[in-house]
Amino acid sequence: MRVREAVAAAHPNIALVKYWGNRDPALRIPSNGSISLTLAGLKTQMRVGFDPDLERDRLLINQVPAEAAALQRVSRQLDLIRNEAAVRAPAIVHSDTDFPMAAGLASSAAAFAALTLAGCAAAGLKLGRAELSALARRGSGSAARSIFGGYVELVAGADAATSVARPLAEAEHWLLIDLIVLIDPNPKPTGSTDGHSSAQTSPLQAARVADAPRRLQACREAVLARDFERLAEVVEQDSDMLHAVMMTSSPALHYWQPSSLAIMSMVRSLRRAGVAACYTVDAGPNVHCLCLPEAEPRLREGLEQLSPDLWILRAEPGPGAWLV
Ligand code: DP6
């Protein structure tokens, strides 16, 4: 029998209002909704080939055979696709990423969005974007959002089928620049999956989740109105609330490093001086500095003054996952 193969690519995304904690960890139904921006400039490509001659699934990440844990996570996602499509063959998966993995840059978002799209195409499964999003979410919560481009909202629905992402605004709606400062490009000690499961141990998590509808509404309105000042306020508050939960969880998760704080503080003073920039930090020390295009030179200057040899990646709003 012939090998059934497909290739897909996806961008990661940066959450403007973040998801942390799952109401149902097995199905990855998030405790709260989230809103993100899909990031062109960084990309993961997945080649999936179902091959009946293989004994078991194989995974190569940037051409190197992956560790058992990564392979197992990919195999579980392939199992969901195989079940839906009644395909039995094992698969060989080639994953190629052009940005540092597991450094808090949501590499799992791009990976599972691309894997889901390529896997479904290779298996002959024709799903709409909403169904693809729900399926991608099972592999990584934030992957549900990378199925779509531009500004995207992941709804914390009542069940697995309704916890899907939907587009909020096209990439072209508003040009925001994301300067991502890589403080530490090495894999983080505690990944998001373990972090999600400890969210409930923080006494602050319930308050963060209860307040989520307010932040989501503020973010939706700010994005739709292209109101940077309003966006900056909610984005920074949401990021700080997330890290307050992380720091007060058991075990405590301290992702910020001194240089993360120095950058956050510099960005806040720039904004006080009228520069349209704000920060947000995921589960890692790297700082995403969002800005309007006209603010980019001042922001770069500020970063340069902090340290002339910072490693900075640049991203802007981009499309959802696509078949290659
Ligand atoms: C802090 O989607 O990476 O980036 O489902 O275990 O893969 P898994 O978690 P993941 O968690 C994202 C956490 C976050 C916030 C966000 O992107 O909303």
Q: How would you summarize this macromolecular structure in one to three sentences?
A:
The chain is built from ten helices and 16 strands.
Nearest-integer average pLDDT: 95
Q: What small ligands are held by the chains?
A: ligand DP6
Major sheet summary line: 8 strands, antiparallel
Q: How many strands in all? A: 16
Strand content is 15-25%
Description:
This protein has 324 residues and is of the alpha+beta class. It has ten helices and 16 strands. The protein has helices spanning 68-85, 107-123, 129-139, 143-146, 192-198, 205-210, 212-225, 228-247, 258-272, 296-306, and strands spanning 4-10, 13-17, 22-24, 29-30, 34-40, 44-50, 58-61, 64-65, 91-97, 151-154, 165-169, 177-182, 277-280, 287-291, 311-317, 322-323. A hairpin with a 2-residue loop joins strand 7 and strand 8 (64-65). Helix 1 packs antiparallel against helix 3 (129-139), helix 2 packs across helix 3 (129-139) and helix 9 (258-272) crosses helix 10. The radius of gyration is 19 Å and the shape is globular. Residues 15, 18-20, 28, 34, 106, 108-109, 140-142, 192-193, 196, 282-283 line the site of ligand DP6.
